[in-house]
């Protein structure tokens, strides 16, 4: 029996654990003393390894390469040589015929690790010659990255997970940490025990609201109006730090002009809470000696998400809550390595280390390192994942190489996504399970899983952490970066790596922010937070020390914007708002947690639709009853979960269930900047199943 140190493959809390292995089988997980989790795990950490035993509870493991030679035909098992040469030939043909930008690729924010993401974006940029590489950050914290890069300079948490408990005020908006990051939720409880004031802004009475000093039970879809009202109060009641604003910020007058129409008394009807509550929240936030803002998908999955993120950072700038311990802004990243995928340049506008693709000098640096002609590189930002269905239907995207993502389960408006897939000439899926997207592929490339390989993840607070291989893979599978390298070589660009560290060191040499985060340092310290620019540097627990912001002027950018209504409002036919949410025992598209016996036994098909008792009574629905939920785009079966915790006029579903997938109902009103869909708001109807 041996114990292997690893990092949980689920949420961005980055908990360390030990996998206990006997006869090449994992038999249990134990909590380890990681800096973010301190010998604690949630149920996914303790029971989320069972999928490695190929339980076939939800779907079977991909065990060998397969090709479907004809659309509509059957998958045929093939050798790796055949799978690689067929994929390379088809991609080369499409590149030749339609150009590099006709091919889309994805990295993965899940268990594959940073090294693979680096190799995938290199494949896109150096071999395919396109910036068409993206990841699921697009549908979660893409707006946080885009917004914070403009206002503060860095699109990440400015603070550390372990420092949350030391803050004296937590302003938590659109973030249900008890379900999405249970170990972060423990820090919130500790903060409360340490005397922090907790303000929660959320339409539902979520767990955190139960311990909050103030719960602003806001209307769905009002975030920008609420944030504007917050800023209005800080200015009108003279609660802001004038000296800090004068020395460290820009844009004050424009922001003041924008919020002048957002007095709390004027926006009560929009936001659904009283002016007194709004004013009290800002008096508490501004008076605290240290304050932290935390947010999640309830901020970012809206058509006006980037504006709201920028507005939230203005609250921190106005009150001087940046650049020191115990304060900051915290977009708490969802998937375990979604921060890492962005760090590694699996985004269409930036190389690894957040270096812009439109900068000719940066392109030259990467081209030289990769041994290619700079002129062959794409000099424009590439396509975002959420744009693929539209561009496929327009004939502009012809091939899609998808690694460790499941867009046919996780994207908004699945009917549209299916139409887009039908229009593609060639789909390659590299994954560990036969997901919904894998079922639609032309080529299946089976990869090793977390547990079967090691590497580096980045957790939500910018902490690089190494994880180790625990067991030998049982099947005819390969490491993700090895598969990509073989395809690259078959396409005429020789690519060969011996191990993870070789890739990591190549990446470090090209990324000044990450250069000092060596394998050795991660081994010694366990958790190295970027920026870490030199070998001697210990890493950065909080950003913007001395209030030096990474903006062109070095100053924080204040911002507010007029509130826009969500795109699809309830009406007589579809009278309720649908908001997508998380379920604590499951993760993302559920291909991993759905194959873990303990987790599957806690929650099974077809999921739930949470609804207020009054709305349920109006529709003649009782608790646990099977119901239809329909929107203008589709109709699914779900089970009613009637609860007083749910606000009137709204229902809540997860996107994880294979039957009753709520993304059949959602709509893809995209934020104009980040192209993140508005999955937190669309109009639906709910009805008894007997009536249909
Ligand atoms: Fe894993 Fe997140 Fe749970 Fe920690 S909180 S054990 S990282 S799922």
From TrEMBL:
Its cofactor is [4Fe-4S] cluster; Mo-bis(molybdopterin guanine dinucleotide). Coiled coil: none annotated. It holds the Pfam family Molybdop_Fe4S4. It comes from the Bacteria. One of its GO terms (biological process) is respiratory electron transport chain. InterPro entries: Asp_de-COase-like_dom_sf, CT_Formate-Dh_H, Formate_Dh-H_N, Formate_DH_asu, MoPterin_dinucl-bd_dom, Mopterin_OxRdtase, Mopterin_OxRdtase_4Fe-4S_dom, Mopterin_OxRdtase_prok_CS. GO terms for molecular function: 4 iron, 4 sulfur cluster binding; formate dehydrogenase (NAD+) activity; metal ion binding; molybdopterin cofactor binding; NADH dehydrogenase activity. Keywords: 4Fe-4S, Iron, Iron-sulfur, Metal-binding, Molybdenum, Oxidoreductase. NCBIfam families: Fdh-alpha. This is Formate dehydrogenase major subunit. It comes from Izhakiella capsodis.
């Amino acid at each position: 029996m041996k114990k292997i140190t690893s990092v949980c493959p689920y949420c961005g809390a980055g908990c360390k654990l030990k996998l206990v292995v006997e006869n090449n089988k994992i038999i249990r997980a134990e909590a380890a003393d990681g800096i973010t989790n301190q010998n604690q795990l949630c149920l996914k950490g303790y029971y989320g390894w069972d999928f490695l035993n190929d339980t076939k509870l939800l779907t079977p493991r991909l065990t060998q390469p397969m090709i479907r030679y004809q659309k509509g035909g059957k998958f045929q098992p093939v050798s790796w040589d055949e799978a690689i040469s067929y994929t390379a030939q088809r991609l080369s043909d499409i590149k030749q015929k339609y150009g590099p930008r006709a091919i889309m690729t994805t990295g993965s924010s899940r268990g594959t690790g940073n090294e693979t993401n680096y190799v995938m974006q290199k494949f896109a940029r150096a071999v395919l010659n396109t910036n068409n590489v993206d990841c699921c950050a697009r549908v979660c914290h893409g707006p946080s990255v885009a917004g914070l890069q403009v206002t503060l300079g860095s699109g990440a948490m400015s603070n550390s997970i372990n420092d949350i408990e030391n803050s004296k005020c937590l302003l938590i908006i659109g973030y249900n940490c008890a379900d999405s990051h249970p170990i972060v939720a423990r820090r919130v409880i500790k903060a409360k025990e340490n005397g922090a004031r907790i303000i929660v802004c959320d339409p539902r009475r979520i767990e955190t609201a139960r311990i909050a000093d103030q719960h602003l039970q806001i209307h769905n879809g009002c975030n920008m109006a609420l944030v504007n009202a917050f800023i209005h109060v800080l200015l009108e009641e003279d609660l802001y730090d004038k000296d800090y604003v004068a020395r460290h910020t820009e844009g004050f007058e424009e922001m003041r002009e924008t919020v002048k129409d957002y007095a709390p008394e004027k926006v009560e009807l929009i936001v659904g809470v009283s002016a007194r509550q709004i004013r009290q929240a800002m008096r508490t936030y501004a008076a605290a000696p240290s304050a932290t803002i935390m947010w999640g998908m309830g901020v970012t999955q809206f058509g006006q998400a980037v504006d709201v993120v920028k507005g939230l950072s203005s609250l921190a700038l106005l009150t001087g809550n940046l650049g020191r311990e115990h304060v900051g802004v915290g977009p708490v990243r969802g998937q375990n390595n979604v921060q890492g995928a962005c760090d590694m340049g699996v985004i269409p506008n930036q190389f690894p280390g957040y270096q812009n693709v439109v900068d000719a000098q940066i392109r030259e640096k990467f081209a030289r390192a990769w041994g290619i002609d700079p002129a062959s590189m794409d000099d424009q930002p590439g396509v975002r994942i959420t744009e693929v269905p539209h561009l496929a239907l327009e004939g502009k995207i012809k091939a899609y190489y998808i690694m460790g993502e499941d867009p046919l389960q996780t994207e908004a408006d699945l009917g549209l996504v299916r139409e887009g897939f039908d229009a593609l000439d060639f789909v390659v899926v590299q994954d560990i399970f036969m997901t919904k997207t894998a079922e639609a592929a032309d080529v299946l490339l089976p990869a090793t899983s977390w547990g079967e390989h090691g590497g580096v993840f980045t957790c939500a607070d910018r902490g690089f952490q190494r994880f180790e291989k625990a067991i030998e893979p049982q099947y005819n599978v390969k490491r993700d970066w090895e598969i990509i390298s073989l395809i690259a070589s078959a396409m005429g660009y020789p690519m060969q790596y011996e191990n993870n560290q070789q890739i990591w060191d190549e990446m470090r040499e090209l990324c000044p922010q990450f250069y000092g985060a060596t394998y050795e340092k991660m081994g010694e310290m366990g958790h190295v937070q970027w920026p870490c620019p030199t070998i001697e540097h210990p890493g950065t627990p909080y950003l913007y020390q001395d209030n030096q912001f990474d903006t062109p002027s070095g100053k924080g950018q204040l911002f507010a914007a007029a509130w826009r209504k969500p795109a699809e409002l309830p009406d007589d036919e579809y009278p309720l708002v649908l908001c997508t949410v998380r379920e604590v025992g499951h993760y993302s598209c559920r291909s991993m947690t759905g194959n873990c016996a303990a987790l599957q036994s806690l929650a099974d098909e077809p999921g739930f639709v949470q609804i207020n008792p009054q709305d349920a009574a109006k529709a003649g629905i009782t608790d646990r009853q099977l119901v239809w939920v329909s929107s203008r785009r589709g109709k699914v079966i779900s089970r009613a979960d009637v609860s007083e915790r749910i606000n009137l006029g709204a229902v809540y579903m997860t996107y994880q269930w294979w039957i009753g997938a709520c993304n059949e109902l959602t709509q893809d009103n995209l934020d104009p900047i980040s192209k993140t869909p508005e999955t937190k708001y669309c109009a639906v109807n709910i009805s008894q199943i007997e009536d249909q």
